[in-house]
Structure to design on (1138 residues):
């Protein structure tokens, strides 16, 4: 805008339009005059924070002059029934900082290209077109020579919770053929023990279900810190008479409010769980009828080889006709061997087998739980017993008195907890994902499920193991595959890292040759046998990272950086905020933050569909993930056309796929039918069961809408948006999706037998010789993973810099005082942090809240430097060819281990880190 | 017994300000500085500077004129690289943030104060730039806008004059020296380093001059 004033001055504006060419309506005399104008909002939008806090709290977002100034909890939640509290108030300290944080210095506002050495901090702003074209060329070079599998598209929990964005990413991967290393197992969050036992991995109800429990064990979890919007259910339940028992080695804020706190030594939770099982069995507190029908505990096991007695053992007909999934019980009513109802399908179940015939209902059969019988088999007469008998024996080895030295807990306390738990109807275990991060976390989950099952606490309202349920979100994958079919490569991040970061070498250095060789031999065998996929044959050359900050948290961080990440030819990070991963990339692409984008959020903790809406346009040149991928794929298509690249043949899991990159944009947008992320969101709304069929705009106007079939606290309706597999079995008596068709506590895969994991049992956590302190970590109050961790106000509410919790005795022995900077070290590496002395930490352990980025630490290294566990892939986690066991994306894959290591500390040398 | 509160002593603009003689030139100086500190990625700064030099820009002080000419003579890609590397992108945010809110460490109220100034005087940012009311180039353009109206609007002149003094004192003079020092520490002698040095001197001198042409009642502060 230009103008010429009376005195010869020329007005030339490029940022603004000038409303008034004359003086302001009210004369300006002093600064206070500015404050006389009423502050009004131009717009109030609905929104939340699209990060994996599991909160999905509804917020109003207040906008004036194109700026978000504040947010406020929207809070219009109804309860799930008249006898439970509602879901409000929802919100947390991080969410209420976002309007400030989104304008912070960490924001990525423009496409950036590295101009110095990687990680040297020299960047240049470039345009989207240049960035997309250069990235597309690198991708096409690799895809057409080595194949697209050497390019990965990694994403994290921040991506997965935004349904439309994730659908876009999945579609991008499906079209291009890049490998998607899934993060669920990669961050050590996959409840494989739950899957192995129940054939369903994401069990859990709304958080209101906590209120229905009469006893809740809060185990491997710290909801007072990590589930701020939902923690009230625990305390309301407690005021209502529920016994809330916190189990954690350290005195957590949850323990502080609990009815009772038990503090086992770190890594001894399986011993504790089995001790609780032993009391339940010893004192006959178990629900016999329940376990007879629902579990494999009455199934017969051959004592000569430890395997289930199966149809194939009994007859040649059995061998060929019903293969190996006919199981037997001893019927006390008739004194005869009988086939277990619901077993004997023609094929082992593959995934979610809806064709399963049969019923768990026992009819007139009364299966024996105890006893020994001689049974005729093709091998002659074989003595058999029940799983229940074997369990009793295993549990007795873990009697509270026997494991007291392991757990450090008084047998009296353990017995008291077991009795409370068994007497409470219903009882629940609220477990966090921490369990999955231990090498033998699967056995802990199997033991927890034993406690629940033995007491009849899998199925009823207010019971069960409460991990987060996952939305069926069928629309999400339907969108990814629409018009083109599934041609996507998905592997576990854990196995991908093992293949590319020389983690066998680190296993050898840290845990010894024997373990390294054994684990590697089984790993390679499993891959050779196709039990688990590997797309690693062409190496790892290029990586996209979106919604994840991989270099922050990877186990074996130093090794992964050195051997895999730093060796990549091209690294592209799509992110709203700078991080260690972005700082070491070649290209960083700016992504819209929570209040600058449209999307859908669905979390099982609350029965609401939540909107993310664009309160303001994305800052700078940021765009939504959907749009970023569209620009990338448009560039791939354009460059493929310009380079005259023909379609290439690709092979995915034995299927031949034709990849015509010149048409990639057309595929991505479904021939132009999908014009933006709101269309993706609408597609998902329209095609996902249980979501109210409303328009995205209406959802945006309302903020939240209740999902269908969510009257109660459980996800017990087939057509609700969440899984309800257990209800199908507990209530409707359909067999479980396990090999045995039951809650399967006994696993007779040869590797499980070889490693004595057929039933859960205690294992000493792995230690590094000469390093006495077991280090554990947890989610933080002041950040969601690395997001908001660097917010100035939130940092000021802590110690101002990363701190690590240390027992005062351990500190005194090393001459360390509270507030000193200490050097934490082991053979894998070291980092420095402030010692936070706390009597709530046991001697012999260190505890740290996670998420701090390396740049916040003196010396630029974070905790990841001392976690050497990336290669700890225990053989049984790679088992396959056994009914439901074998690779199942997002269900059965080896977790990356993040515990099972030790370290030491000393006062940091004066002058700080090098 | 009640007594009426005494009238606050009011500021006065002194005759020595001579707005007819000064406002247009200052208006032009602020515009030129706004152009030089604009992101060459977002704004076609060469075209703007060219237009200025072709117009009345020749009346600008010689040193500023020289910077404008140097700007035109420098490869725009090199300027883009220097600008973005200093002010826009970095591993931990831009090395020298060119936004007041960031440089001043997120001081509470900085952006609100800016928006209140802009709103009061009818300066409405385009949607594309609305998120950054604290960008140096925007603040300088606002000063240009105020000076323009001081020159053009004789009737309402006092408002524009007081607005400038308060805005410069509360914002530009508060952080431009800090930004200039940051850039000097990172890229002393660079083109943008010299722009910032000159801007710092200009803003400081201009504020002092404004203070000298506005009388303050004893004990009062511009802050109020
Ligand atoms: S960050 Fe998560 S828990 Fe916190 S207010 Fe936002 S949505 Fe709720």
């Amino acid at each position: 805008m230009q103008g010429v004033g009376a005195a010869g001055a020329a007005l030339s504006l490029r940022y603004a339009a000038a409303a008034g060419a004359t003086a302001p309506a009210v004369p300006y005399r002093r600064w206070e005059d500015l404050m006389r104008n009423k502050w009004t909002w131009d717009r109030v939008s609905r929104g939340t924070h699209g990060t994996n806090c599991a909160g999905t709290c509804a917020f109003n977002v207040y906008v004036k002059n194109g700026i978000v100034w504040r947010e406020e909890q929207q809070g219009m939640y109804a309860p799930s029934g008249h006898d439970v509290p509602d879901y409000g108030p929802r919100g947390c300290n991080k969410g209420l900082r976002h309007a400030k944080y989104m304008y912070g210095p960490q924001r990525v506002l423009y496409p950036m290209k590295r101009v110095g050495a990687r990680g040297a901090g020299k960047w240049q702003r470039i345009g989207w077109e240049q960035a997309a074209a250069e990235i597309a060329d690198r991708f096409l070079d690799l895809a057409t020579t080595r194949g697209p599998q050497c390019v990965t598209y990694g994403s994290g929990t921040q991506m997965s919770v935004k349904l439309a964005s994730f659908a876009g990413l999945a579609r991008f991967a499906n079209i291009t053929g890049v490998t998607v290393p899934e993060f669920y197992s990669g961050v050590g969050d996959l409840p494989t023990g739950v899957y192995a036992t129940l054939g369903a991995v994401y069990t859990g109800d709304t958080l209101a279900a906590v209120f229905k429990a009469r006893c809740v064990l809060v185990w491997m979890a710290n909801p007072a810190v990590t589930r701020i919007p939902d923690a009230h259910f625990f305390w309301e339940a407690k005021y209502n008479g529920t016994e809330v028992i916190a189990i954690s080695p350290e005195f957590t804020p949850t323990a502080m409010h609990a009815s009772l706190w038990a503090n086992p030594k770190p890594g001894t939770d399986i011993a504790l769980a089995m001790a609780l099982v032993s009391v339940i069995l010893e004192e006959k507190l178990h629900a016999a009828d329940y376990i007879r029908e629902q579990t494999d505990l009455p199934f017969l096991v051959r004592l000569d080889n430890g395997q289930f007695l199966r149809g194939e053992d009994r007859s040649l007909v059995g061998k060929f006709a019903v293969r190996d999934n006919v199981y037997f019980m001893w019927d006390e009513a008739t004194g005869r061997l009988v086939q277990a109802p619901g077993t004997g399908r023609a094929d082992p179940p593959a995934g979610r087998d809806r064709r399963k015939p049969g019923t768990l209902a026992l009819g007139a059969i009364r299966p024996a739980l105890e006893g020994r019988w001689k049974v005729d088999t093709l091998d002659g007469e074989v003595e058999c017993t029940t799983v229940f008998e074997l369990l009793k024996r295993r549990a007795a080895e873990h009697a509270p008195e026997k494991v007291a030295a392991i757990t450090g807990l008084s047998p009296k306390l353990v017995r008291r907890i077991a009795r409370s738990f068994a007497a409470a109807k219903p009882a629940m275990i609220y477990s966090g994902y921490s369990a999955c991060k231990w090498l033998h976390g699967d056995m802990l989950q199997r033991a927890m499920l034993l406690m629940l099952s033995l007491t009849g606490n899998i199925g009823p309202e207010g019971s069960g193991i409460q991990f987060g349920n996952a939305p069926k979100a069928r629309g999400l994958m339907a969108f990814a595959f629409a018009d083109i079919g599934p041609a996507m490569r998905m592997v576990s991040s854990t196995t991908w890292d093992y293949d590319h970061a020389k983690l066998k070498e680190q296993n050898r250095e840290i845990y010894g040759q024997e373990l390294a060789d054994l684990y590697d031999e089984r790993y390679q065998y499993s891959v050779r046998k196709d039990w688990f996929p590997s797309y690693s044959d062409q190496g790892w050359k290029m990586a996209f990272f979106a919604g994840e900050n991989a270099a922050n948290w990877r186990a074996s961080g130093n090794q992964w950086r050195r051997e895999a990440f730093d060796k990549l030819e091209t690294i592209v990070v799509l992110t709203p905020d700078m991080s260690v991963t972005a700082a070491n990339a070649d290209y960083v692409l700016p992504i819209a933050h929570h209040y600058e984008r449209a999307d859908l959020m669905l979390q099982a903790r609350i029965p609401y569909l939540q909107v993310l809406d664009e309160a303001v346009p994305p800052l700078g040149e940021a765009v939504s993930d959907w749009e970023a991928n569209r620009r990338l794929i448009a560039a791939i298509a354009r460059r493929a056309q310009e380079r005259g690249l023909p379609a290439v043949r690709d092979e995915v899991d034995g299927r031949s796929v034709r990849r015509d990159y010149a048409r990639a944009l057309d595929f991505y947008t479904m021939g132009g039918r999908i014009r933006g992320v709101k269309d993706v969101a609408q597609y998902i709304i329209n095609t996902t069961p249980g979501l109210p069929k409303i328009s995205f705009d209406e959802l945006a106007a309302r903020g939240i809408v209740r999902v269908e079939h969510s009257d109660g606290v459980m996800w017990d309706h087939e057509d609700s948006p969440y899984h309800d597999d257990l209800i199908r079995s507990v209530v409707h008596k359909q067999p479980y999706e396990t090999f045995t068709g039951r809650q399967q506590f006994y696993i007779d895969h040869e590797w499980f037998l070889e490693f004595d994991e057929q039933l859960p049992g205690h294992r000493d956590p792995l230690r590094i010789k000469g390093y006495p302190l077991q280090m554990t970590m947890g989610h933080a109050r002041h950040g969601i993973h690395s997001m908001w961790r660097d917010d100035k106000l939130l940092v000021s509410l802590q110690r101002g810099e990363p701190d690590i919790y240390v027992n005062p005795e351990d500190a005194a022995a090393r001459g360390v005082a509270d507030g000193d900077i200490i050097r934490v070290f082991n053979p894998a590496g070291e980092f420095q942090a402030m010692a936070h002395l706390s009597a709530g930490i046991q001697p012999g352990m260190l505890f740290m809240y996670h998420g701090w980025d390396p740049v916040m630490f003196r010396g630029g290294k974070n905790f990841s430097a001392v976690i050497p566990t990336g290669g700890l892939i225990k053989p049984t986690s790679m088992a396959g060819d056994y009914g439901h066991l074998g690779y199942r994306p997002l269900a059965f894959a080896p977790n990356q281990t993040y515990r099972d290591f030790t370290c030491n500390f000393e006062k940091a040398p004066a002058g700080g880190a090098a | 017994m009640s007594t009426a509160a005494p009238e606050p002593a009011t500021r006065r603009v002194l005759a020595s300000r001579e707005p007819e003689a000064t406002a247009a030139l200052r208006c032009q100086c602020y515009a030129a500085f706004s152009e030089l500190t604009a992101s060459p990625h977002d704004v076609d700064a060469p075209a703007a500077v060219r237009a200025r030099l072709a117009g009345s820009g020749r009346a600008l002080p010689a040193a500023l004129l020289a910077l404008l000419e140097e700007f035109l003579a420098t490869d725009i890609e090199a300027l883009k690289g220097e600008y973005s590397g200093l002010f826009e992108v970095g591993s931990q945010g831009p090395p020298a943030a060119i936004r007041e809110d960031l440089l001043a460490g997120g001081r509470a109220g900085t952006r609100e104060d800016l928006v209140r100034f802009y709103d009061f005087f009818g300066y409405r940012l385009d949607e594309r730039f609305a998120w950054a009311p604290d960008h140096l180039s925007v603040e300088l353009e606002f000063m240009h806008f105020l000076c323009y109206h001081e020159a053009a609007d004789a009737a309402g002149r006092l408002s524009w004059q007081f607005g400038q003094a308060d805005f410069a004192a509360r914002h530009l003079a508060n952080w431009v020296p800090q930004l200039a020092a940051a850039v000097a520490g990172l890229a002393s002698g660079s083109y943008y380093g010299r722009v910032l040095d000159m801007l710092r001197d200009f803003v400081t001198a201009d504020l002092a001059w404004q203070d000298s042409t506005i009388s303050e009642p004893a004990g009062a502060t511009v802050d109020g």
Summary: The radius of gyration of chain B is 18 Å. Chain B has a mean pLDDT of 91. Strands of chain B lie at 12-13, 123-125, 214-215. Residues A 48-49, 53, 55-57, 90-92, 94-95, 228-229, 784 surround iron/sulfur cluster (CB under 6 Å).
